[in-house]
Amino acid sequence: MSASPQAETAFDLFDRPMGSILQAAQEAIVMIDEHQHIVALNPAAERMFRCTAHQVLGQSLERFIPLGQRTEHAAHVGEFAGSKLLQQRLARHRHTTATRLDGSDFPVEITLSPVDMAEGNGVRQFFAALVLDLSEERQLRDELERFKQRLRSVFELAPVAIWIAESDRIVFANHAAERLFGHDKPLVGQALYGLLATGSHDTIREQMGRTLAGDRDVELVHGSVVRSDGTQREVEIALAALPDHGRTTVQMVVADVTQRRLELAELAQSRESLRRLSTSVVEAREEERRRIARELHDELGQRLTALKMELSALPGVGAQAARQERVDGLMTMLDDTLASVRRISADLRPMMLDDLGLNAAIEWLARDMARRMGIEITVRLSENDAPVDDRVATAVFRMVQEALTNVARHARATDVTVLLKQHDGEFELVVEDNGTGYPKDAMQREGSFGLLGMRERATMLGGWLEYGNAPGSGARLAVRLPLGTRPRPGGFVTAGDGI
Predict the structure, then answer these.
(1) Separation of alpha carbons 195 and 181, rounded Å
(2) Phi, psi (5° rounding) for residue 173?
(3) Same domain flag for 362 and 481
(4) Which of 34, 121, 372, 482 is spaced 20 to 30 A from 329 at the CA atom?
(5) How many domains does the chain have?
(6) What angle do CA 384, 450, 493 make, to 5 degrees?
(7) What are the two backbone dihedrals, phi and then psi, of residue 255, each rounded to the nearest 5 degrees?
(8) What backbone phi and psi angles, to 5 degrees, belong to 380?
(9) Host domain of residue 121
(10) Which of 59, 51, 61 shows the shortest CA–CA distance to 104?
(11) pLDDT tens track for 16-42
(12) Tens digits of per-residue pLDDT, 230-249?
């Protein structure tokens, strides 16, 4: 592009006394005349626009303005030139975009100032444009904004509740904090102590004071928060003062420990129950030994002694008829002794469980218990009586025995149903009655180990035990055991009405 007429007649401002100042300036300075033609630019401007003064002198300032912004720029300069008020301010900061000689755009801040220069007998007005390259500043600002967004995302997406309190007001709360309180309304702007249960206010105030005073060994605060529905959640709160925020802003990390405390309480209760069960098993074993010893002594011992005495006296009986009568009495006594042996043996373990299978053993047990308890017991068996693992058969037999014993002791029932079936690789036992049902603390009642023992039997075999009250009245006990021989982790479920 050839130089304009103005460029041919223009003088170099840097030849003037102020030229040395412009040359030494570290900021880019572009001088334009009243027609917005470039009349001078200093070395800093040459480096910024990547050109030499010879390449642009005399050209319109629009050469450095992107095509789409030239109209707006011309209006801005015209407004400045025609307003004495703006000129009296000496500077007009404006953020815009500039174009280098190679066509690349970059953000700038322009400050215009009028400069009156003596020329001949008159005064000619020029304008000095101080141009600041904002590229690096924008990059830093963009990087800072990206960092802030990443940091905010870390806080927002953190799985634990985090909020920031300034004095006693919440100024930031992440999504986890919103979930902790139920999502009903934003936490930002709410009073801190309105979210916490009254009992933890004094502790929070004390720990906040220590935190803001610079104490780095602030303890966790154990308290509770009030949800929007009025329920409370147990929490642990860790506090930290935020730097560069004076002495009023505290970050709080709030961990919901409600479930953990419930689990710890259940674990402690379970350990206590197992301790009591273990003690009960030892005592029951000793009691069983005493009972067996007593029966062996009282029944078998006495009968065998009587047999011995009768046998000893038999040779002295002379008459054949009297001897035969003694022999018949001995046979009757021997039959009674054998019956006692069978009864004691059956109490320890029924032989039919090994000889005839589980179904037959359960039917025998139900008939025997019905006769002794004086109630109706109905047994429903599945057609599939496939052999089951010996441990499963023994456990099911003992659980049915324990369940029927519980009915006799506590339920005041008149009708009991026992259901046994195999399906989908599991063995299911269900015992229902029309009695008073289970109390709420059936598993934890002092001295009551029937349910606890059945639960442990089921757990050891990888199964599950459920108990509860059927709709209306009566209790319902259900046990599911895997038919495989390898135990797997199991447990129990306490159900309410309607299982």
Answers:
(1) 9
(2) -150, 135
(3) yes
(4) 372
(5) 4
(6) 70
(7) -100, 125
(8) -115, 120
(9) 5-133
(10) 51
(11) 555 566 676 778 888 888 888 888 888
(12) 788 888 888 888 776 556 78
